[in-house]
């Protein structure tokens, strides 16, 4: 059994690395599609749903931190896996919205404009980076490699929390400019 573990680890790393590249590339390609798909007006509500998802994810990340500091591993695991699941739902919803609707331009003027774009750009860049860290953190936790999980979480957690919170802030800043 010990000889299988390195092979399993290599397979897991390969899958994580492939997903970490494939997800952002697929999102970028799908966002670049100029011909929008008409699935109905219900898709115009997806940004608002995404704002709720990011809000819940942010709260769950903070709750997960609280639980692990209280040494409540089971509650921590539930909170973090729920946050991970919400992140997956967000990704699908985000892509679906941008496949069906044009991007909404930010209409703010003055000092708020560079603040918005700084938050947006840092959110986007770190959302690409965080995929690899989060997938590794989840894998290490699920496979019982708690030492590696803790090392990965030192990077994954603050980046993931930043991405979730800035997602909410960016949504709130652009919300007035949505037509629905």
TrEMBL record:
Transmembrane segments: 12-33, 45-67, 79-97, 117-135, 155-174
Keywords, sorted A to Z: Membrane, Transmembrane, Transmembrane helix
Keyword ATP-binding: no
InterPro entries with a match to the protein in the record: DUF420
Protein name per Swiss-Prot or TrEMBL: DUF420 domain-containing protein
């Amino acid at each position: 059994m010990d000889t299988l573990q390195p092979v399993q680890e290599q397979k897991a790393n390969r899958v994580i690395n492939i997903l970490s590249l494939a997800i952002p590339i697929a999102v970028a390609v799908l966002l670049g599609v100029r011909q929008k798909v008409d699935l109905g007006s219900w898709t115009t509500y997806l940004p608002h749903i995404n704002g709720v998802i990011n809000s819940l994810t942010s709260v769950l990340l903070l709750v997960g931190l609280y639980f692990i500091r209280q040494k409540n591993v089971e509650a921590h695991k539930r909170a973090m896996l729920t946050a991970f699941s919400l992140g997956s739902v967000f990704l699908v919803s985000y892509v679906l919205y941008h496949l069906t609707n044009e991007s909404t331009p930010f209409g703010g003027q003055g000092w708020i404009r560079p603040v918005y774009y700084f938050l947006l750009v840092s959110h986007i860049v770190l959302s690409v980076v965080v995929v690899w860290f989060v997938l590794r953190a989840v894998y290490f936790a699920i496979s019982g490699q708690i030492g590696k999980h803790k090392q990965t979480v030192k990077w994954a957690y603050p980046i993931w929390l930043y991405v979730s919170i800035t997602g909410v802030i960016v949504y709130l800043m652009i919300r007035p400019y949505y037509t629905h």
